[in-house]
Amino acid sequence: MELKTKTTGAILLTEELSEFLIKKAGKLEVFLKDDPAAIVEIEVGTTSNGQRTGDVYRGEVHVTFAGGDAYAEAVADTLHKAADQAFAEVRRELRKMKSKHRDMVRRGAGKVKDFFRNFGK
Q1: In terms of Cα–Cα distance, which of 31, 96, 41, 44 is closest to 74?
Q2: Looking at residue 34, what is its pLDDT?
Q3: What does pTM read for this prediction?
Q4: Cβ(36)–Cβ(65) below 8 Å
Q5: HEC assignment per residue over the chain
Q6: Tell me, what CATH number does 68's domain have?
Q7: Long-range contacts (CB closer than 8 Å, 24 or more residues apart) made by 46-51
Q8: Rounded distance between C-alpha atoms, residue 60 and residue 5, angstroms
Q9: Residues 6 or more apart whose Cβ sits within 8 Å of residue 6
Q10: What's the confidence (pLDDT) of residue 58?
């Protein structure tokens, strides 16, 4: 899994922020362990230059892998909260894709089994 990190606006990529993002991206490893070519792009920054109060920070996560891609964006009042929300949304999407794929495989296997059951009759 390749990790690309980008900061925008008035945000600097500090050691603490980098470790935080790597730790959060590590939780996606469960869904992407079969795909070594998976790319996780993380962008954190500010929504605008002049705003000082309210939801100022944004986090964006884009995961590209062999089976498709997942994208999430979140805006919050702290940088860490925005990144947390974006990662939670991406994990939800990946979990949903995984369960859909599993259900399709099982449904197809059932149809094949039914076909072979009735094949000799």
Answers
A1: 44
A2: 80
A3: 0.82
A4: no
A5: CEEEEEEECCCCCCHHHHHHHHHHHHCCHHHHCCCCCCEEEEEEEECCCCCCCCCCEEEEEEEEECCEEEEEEEEECCHHHHHHHHHHHHHHHHHHHHHHHHHHHHHHHHHHHHHHHCCCC
A6: 3.30.160.100
A7: 46/8, 46/9, 46/10, 46/11, 47/9, 47/75, 48/9, 49/9, 49/10
A8: 10
A9: 41, 42, 43, 44
A10: 92
CA distance 107 to 72: 29
User: Can you give the length of the chain in residues?
Assistant: 121
**Tokens encoding 37:** 């070519």
For the ranges 30-34, 40-44, 46-50, the lowest mean pLDDT is seen at: 46-50
Q: How many domains does the chain have?
A: 1
Question: Strands 39-46, 57-65: parallel, antiparallel or unpaired by DSSP?
Answer: antiparallel
Domain enclosing residue 18, as ranges: 2-117
